Amino acid sequence: MPSALRAWRAARVTPLGELHTPPRMTAALLRLTVQVVLVASLWRGLYAATGTTAGLDREQAVSYAVLAVLATRVRELDQYSGRDSVIQHMHFGTIVYWYLRPLPPQRYYALRALGEQIYGFAWAIVGYAVCVAAGVVQPPKSAAVAGVFMVSLLLGQWVLYYIMLAIDQLCFFTLRNGAAMLILIFAQNLLSGVYAPLWFFPDWFITLSGFLPFQATLSVPLSLYVGRIQLSDAGAQLAIQAAWVVALALLTRLVWRRAARRVISQGG
């Protein structure tokens, strides 16, 4: 089978599970709509009695919060229902098939994640267009801001891919890791600014997050979009994001090699 065809089939695994299950798509649309409405209402209510807080006005804060909700849709596909998550493969012993396929497991994982992100980006782009048309999200202030935001967003998703890969790789080294994975995912969302912009947290929290890769996934791109980070500082932030991509790529590559030595069939 040509390698391009194998890559295409691997990339569409999880999106096909969504497309062939209309109720899941309907539920995802309803959940996304409710989240956007509630988040926009919440932040407008918080800014009802003040003009500017933490250096941002109401429209900037609402735009950040709504964009954070849309961004989470990029990697929010339901692998668990399709029994396609790494923790499930480890539990049922089917992870061994990743090492028997023509594609190496690390390439299969990367292609599958790429397909998920492309599918998730389609959702996010449609949601973004609707929110901008409805006046919920402000458009970029300039073409330069839009361009830098897109570059930063792509780098952020690249960093997020490696973070999620590292969390999945944890499954190779622990037998009961459901709680640990939930904690790590919560930490990733908290420290990346999904729940609330990082500049609302105490100074020590912001300083701590600066030594971790999480804020490079979402906080930096959205801060560039709303103007919290100026264009003059964008170069340094993009360089930090790129450095995290390189560092995490080297780390996860090493872990892949060690994980292959631990593959055993459990359960199933």
Automatic annotation (TrEMBL):
- Read off the Pfam families from this record: ABC2_membrane_6
Question: What InterPro entries does the record point to?
Answer: ABC-2_transporter-like
- What are the entry keywords? Membrane, Transmembrane, Transmembrane helix
Does this UniProt record's set of keywords contain Glycoprotein? no
**Transmembrane stretches, start-end:** 118-137, 143-167, 179-198, 238-256
Organism's domain of life?
Bacteria
This protein is called what?
ABC transporter permease
